[in-house]
Amino acid sequence: MSTYSPHQLELYLERIRYPGSASSTRLQRLQQAIQEDPLAALTEIQHRQLASIPWGNSALHYSSHRTISIRPGCVFEKLIERALDGYCMENNNLLYTVLHSLGYTVYPTGGRVCLAASEAGYPGVEQLYTGLSHMVLIVTVNGAKFAVDVGFGNKGPTSPLPLTQDTVSVCMTPTEMRLVYDALPTFVDQTQKVWIYQIRYTPDSRWIPMYSFLGNEFVPQDFEIMNFFTSQQRKSWFTQTLVCTRMFLDETESAVQGLYVLSGKEVKRRQHGQTDVVATLESEQDRVQALAKWFGLHLREHEVEGIRGLVSEIK
After folding, report:
1. What is the pLDDT of residues 84-143, one digit of tens each?
2. CB of 223 within 8 A of CB of 217?
3. With bands split at pLDDT 50, 70 and 90, how would you rate the model's confidence at 182?
4. Would you call 115 helix, strand, or coil by DSSP?
5. What stretch of H or E contains 140?
6. How many CB atoms lie within 10 A of CB 39?
7. Which UniProt keywords are given for this protein, alphabetically ordered (predicted)?
8. Under DSSP, is residue 74 helix (H, G, I), strand (E, B) or coil?
9. 97 CB neighbour count, 10 Å cutoff
C-alpha cells in the first residue's frame, strides 16, 4: 500500500501543528513519542488533525470539476499542500496513510450512517441506516484494537475508541461516546452483529446511534465505489448541501474543547454544551470569507465561480 515520505510526514505534522523543537524535527519527536506510548501518540495525532483539517465537502460545490479523488497523493495535495477540507474518505485516508507510514498496524473498514445523525426527529429514525458510505480506521495498539475516525464532522469521535462493549469516554464535554456490539434493527438475522458508535449529549440523556461499522478490512476498490456514489449520486446529501466543520482544542491542547460548523447561512460555535451563532451569511462573498476566517480555506477565483447555478449557492 501507499506510504508518505519523511518530507511529506513533516509537512503533515506542520499542518496539524504538531510541536517540534530546535534539537529535533517534528517527525523525530513523534517517533520518540510512539516508542514511549503509542496510544497517547495516536490520540494526540487524532486531536490535532481534527483541530487543523476541516471536515467538509467544498470541492463538490466550489470547483469546476465537482469530483473527489481519494488516492493518497491527491488527498495529500488537497488537504496538506492546499490546506483545504475533506470528507470521511479523504480525511481518514490521509490519516490511514500517515499511520501506516509511521509503523502503526492499521486497516480501514466501511460503515453505514444512521439517519439520526442528521437530527431528524421522526419516529423510527434511529433504526434507519444508509448503505455503506463511511470509512473508519481500525488501529491495533499493544494487542488491542481501537476505532479511529477523523471524518464524521461535528458528532464524530474525538479520540480512539476501544473495540469493547460500553466503554464510555468523553467526546467533547459534556457529550459522551461509546461503542456497542449489536445487530442493526433491520437485519433479518439478528445474530449478525456490528459495532455501533453512539453519543449522548449529557451524562443523563439517552444514547443516539451515529453510525455502524463492520470491523473487517476493506480494500481500496471498496472505497472507490463508495466514494463515487457519495460524491456523484444526485440524491446524495453531499451533492446538495455545503457544510464545513473544524474542531478546536483547549488551552493545554490535550483535549477537543469545541467546534465551528458552517451549515446553511450560519457559522456556529459549540463549546461546553452551548451553541452560539458567530456569523450570518447573506451572500456567497460572506460564505467565502467565513470559510477563510473560521476554517482556513482559501479558495481560488475559479473555484468560487464553480458554485454558480447550483442548488447550494446563496442567492
Report:
1. 999 999 999 999 999 999 999 999 999 999 999 987 767 889 999 999 999 999 999 999
2. no
3. very high
4. helix
5. strand 129-141
6. 16
7. Acyltransferase, Transferase
8. helix
9. 22
Query: What number is the average pLDDT over the span 23-52?
Result: 95
Q: Is the pLDDT of residue 246 over 70?
A: yes
pLDDT tens-digit profile of 300-311?
Answer: 999 999 999 999
293 inside domain: yes
User: Domain limits at 191?
Assistant: 6-305
Question: How far is residue 17 from each of residues 11, 27, 131, measured CA to CA in Å?
Answer: 10, 12, 35
Shortest CA distance to 81 belongs to which of 93, 68, 94? 94
CATH of the domain at 88: 3.30.2140.20
Q: Is residue 311 part of a domain?
A: no
Q: Are 243 and 237 in contact (CB under 8 A)?
A: no
State how far the Cα of 294 lies from the Cα of 243, in Å rounded to an integer.
13
- C-alpha cell belonging to residue 97: 496513510
Q: Determine phi and psi for 143, rounding to 5 degrees.
A: 85, -5
CA distance 196 to 204: 20
The number of distinct structural domains making up the chain is 1
- The amino acid that residue 59 corresponds to is A
The pLDDT of residue 23: 64
Hey, what's the cell of 140? 491495533
Asked if residue 21 has pLDDT above 80, the reply is: no
Q: At a CB cut-off of 8 Å and minimum separation 6, what does 60 contact?
A: 66, 67, 68, 231, 238, 239, 242
* Cα dist from 203 to 62, 208, 254, 275, whole Å: 39, 12, 21, 18
With beta carbons less than 8 A apart as the criterion, state whether 95 and 150 touch: yes
Q: At which residue does the C-alpha cell 442567492 appear? A: 315
Cβ contacts of 173 within 8 Å, gap of 6 or more: 255, 257, 272, 273
Does 122 map to a domain? yes
Q: How far is CA 107 from the centre of its chain?
A: 16
